[in-house]
Hints:
Elements: E1 5-11, E2 18-27, E3 30-36, E4 42-43, E5 45-50, E6 53-62, E7 65-76, E8 79-86, E9 89-97
Antiparallel strand pairs: 1-2, 1-9, 2-3, 3-4, 5-6, 6-7, 7-8, 8-9
Amino acid sequence: MSITGTWNLTLKSPLGDQAARLDLHELDGTVQGTLTGKGEPAALQRLTVDGASLAFAADADTPVGRMNLAFTGAVTGDTLAGTYSTPFGAFEFSGSRV
């Protein structure tokens, strides 16, 4: 199952739901991508893909400032779900392929 494409994400947070966009593409056999929230797109860091599972980190502009978020999740069809970690704890996220 391919994880590439554009994903509209909803990140649960103590400040309410936050919207983000995850763009994943393959270049020379390697998956790369960006995460876009309230600011400019941020290149994904430490991106790993294992079948339908993925993990990555990104520096993101959030309502409380710029911070590094670490995501783990899995793709099922055209949905993506998992958790992301912040300095304030771990929270759920979900998304759908555009």
